[in-house]
Amino acid sequence: MEHVAIKQKEFWNGKAQVFPRYEPCENNYEARMLNIAKKHGVDFTGQKILDVGCGTGMYTIRLAQEAASVLGTDISEEMLDILNTDAKRENITNLRTVLTDWKDFETDERFDLIFCSMTPAVHDNYTREKLFKYTDRWLIFMGFAGVMQSDVMAEVYRHHGVTQRKFNNGKDMEDWLVENKREFTAYPVEGEWVQNRHAEGMAVCCRNMLSSYDVEMDESFILSHIENFKNSDGSYTERIKYKIEMIICEI
């Protein structure tokens, strides 16, 4: 298990520099997702929030702009470094971070709301039940519903003889809630992420995604392949189709 945790940390540290980060605008993907929660009746204003698997803080900083306080946890110190840098830039002073795997996290604190977005840290009975240990009212969980398809990675996987894993943590969470007789509302969301990167950033993403499979990387293929996604301005664009479930539980 310790070996698995180390591999997870290495994987997410490897993604940190090319991972999406907080953007201060009100019409992007993160803002739209939080608006879905608000329409359901969730009010982030003045709340004490725990963000599990917070990553670079795309949601964490946005939540802190409304909440009384936010605590973000993540296994990747490099992700948290980016979060703290961006929080400082945005003059956020009510946000703390803890470097930890969720399964190892312990605190005497309780929270009005626990927020989890696309995190593999919540994946079994123990880590799911633990969410309810620390929340007094709300749980917001976002996970994939079977689809995360990258136009860049599709051919990379095929070339390396890899079958892409299914991403179903949203549906898995729904099944667990039903089995454990916990009430929830689920909102299906689908769309396309568009991510612009420089050449090395695109290559790093390809290498990182392949690193979770036991294959020998064909570096020359990767470097040649990403040229198919080069724009006239020299940037590179990846498009990722997704289906997500936003699951909201009120305790």
TrEMBL record:
GO molecular function, one term: methyltransferase activity
Pfam families referenced in this protein's UniProt entry, alphabetically: Methyltransf_25 (PF13649)
Every Methyltransferase domain range: 49-139
Domain of life: Bacteria
A Gene Ontology BP annotation from the UniProt entry: methylation
PANTHER family listed in its UniProt record: CYCLOPROPANE-FATTY-ACYL-PHOSPHOLIPID SYNTHASE (PTHR43667), FATTY ACID C-METHYL TRANSFERASE (PTHR43667:SF2)
Protein name: Methyltransferase type 11
